[in-house]
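For reference, the entry.
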Amino acid sequence: MSALTQTNPAPEHVLSVSNLRAYYQTKYFGVSREVRAVDGVSLHIDRNEIYGLAGESSCGKTTLIKTIVRAIRAPLNVVDGSVRFNFAGRERDMYALNETELAAVRWRHLSYILQGSMNVLNPVRRVRQSFVDFAWRHIGRPMPEFLRLVEGHLARLRLEPAILDSYPHELSGGMRQRVTIALASVCRPDFIVADEPTTALDVVVQKDVLALLREVQREIRSSMILVTHDIGVHANVTDRLGIMYAGRLVEEGRTVDVIRNPRHPYTAHLVSSLPRIGDTTPKKGLEGSPPNLAAPPPGCRFHPRCPLAMDICRKEHPPMVEMGHRVACWATAPPAQGAIS
């Protein structure tokens, strides 16, 4: 094949999620209840890519990533769909792994930065012990060599090795969050999940933490999914962006395209809520509230709050269609344009 006709190979998907449905299912006093927190989500993330996930509180972001990393427990259950990772050229179905195989994947290939650093660090043990508990068996080095490796990793992230002798309460919130990022990246995993990593941090510390997160991702060339409701953070950090509403993905594309040209009315509202220098016009709130996911409305779940709602919106769920980027909306992507997988 000549150089003129040669095409670039398709990006390699490190994560593929297909029609994922994860419901909270309870039964008390003979009454069954089902909350459809994640309902038919499909997405993929390419190698060395940062994928953003945005949406207001209770839209299903945290439930989705917990399901992706198989960090679930009753009453949350996966009722349909698949989650497949491609680590070191080998594709794995997360829900086909036994406990031993799952333990070998976690932290070595797949790490998780939880929301709130104190959820990770044991308050009665020194930081050093957290690195030992999480990473030592995966790195497989003698303890003195392992600790030297950890100290070198901290130094690369501009953290003093002396913090290993500290208890979590002796560190500031920003410092604890930096430690959790170091903890999640010390094994140089293929994939990092970051759930609201800047929650409860002031804007100056938030900027430093995000810069560190981006620097770590570039250094170890891992893929990442970053969850936050802050569209401004996504604009500065992520490569592609998915917008969730009421348990479903409603828009997805390159971050710059989604922010500059939002196709879904919900996305347009999120983007318009961003403050802009010199803009003194009042911001209009979105009327109504997110639906009850134990009894979601038929059709498009956004239609009770949507200014563009039509009859079809109240009856049928819109498919994801390609309009420069993917969007699920009858008003902006009419049925004649057809659905895509």
The CA atoms of residues 57 and 229 lie 8 Å apart.
